[in-house]
């Protein structure tokens, strides 16, 4: 088992809801809390056991055998929480094939959210009203975003899967658990002309965004209950209450993220907002109840 220290990241659109999930209270606009990350830019520190003090990326690369047979070269998942005090940029993510050809990376970005708190408006941006790239481009040039972007109603505790190529954005008030392929490649269409502390606007990526946009793709919002499982192309997730003895009887490792509750494992206090990796065959005992998301990679 690997218990992981969270990573707090400031964003232009972040808020303060993640403070109660163990986020850094010194960050005024805390938008992202990464609980499982293992790439060159972000990697969690391990808090327990043989690898205590090491980071997950190095442990994964040097000891792939502990994660199972035929593991990919790079850790395949990126997991955390997102607090959107403001709307996120209108954006789209590339798929694996595009990333391999144009970005020199193995993985694109499909992602899923569980809405811990829904957006204030009751809907997120998702999908295109305009069904050709040419018409999308025309409306971008004239600034008619209302003619382009569609919306998706979402409620508390609903699940949304966003496939690569889908135009989307979380909107203000959203607090979500997020799982994605382990890449942060995002192509922005529009960012509300926001500026950073230096007065600089964040870059847009219109050419690449149009390249990867699929105007036919739109997500669904589904209710997800305790014990229910969702299987996507690159990962599985299940909402689950862990009480008492719990064993990973699968043939792969579990990425377990705590949504509610606390306990102590391997002399480390586990709190809401933390994650740990439970290897195949490992067993834990939880004194109280943990409401968790259990995720596993399919590659």
UniProtKB/TrEMBL annotation:
Any Pfam family: PMI_typeI_cat
Membrane-crossing segments per the record: none
Keywords, alphabetical: Isomerase, Metal-binding, Zinc
Domain of life: Bacteria
Family matches, as InterPro entries: Carb_Metab_Reg_Kinase/Isom, Man6P_isomerase_Firm_short, PMI_typeI_cat, RmlC-like_jellyroll, RmlC_Cupin_sf
CDD domains in the record: cupin_PMI_type_I_N_bac
GO molecular function, one term: mannose-6-phosphate isomerase activity
Residues the record lists as binding Zn(2+): 93, 111, 168
Co-factor requirement: Zn(2+)
GO annotation, biological process: carbohydrate metabolic process
Active site: 188
Stretches assigned to the Phosphomannose isomerase type I catalytic domain: 30-102
Record note on cofactor: Binds 1 zinc ion per subunit.
Designated name of the protein: Mannose-6-phosphate isomerase type 1
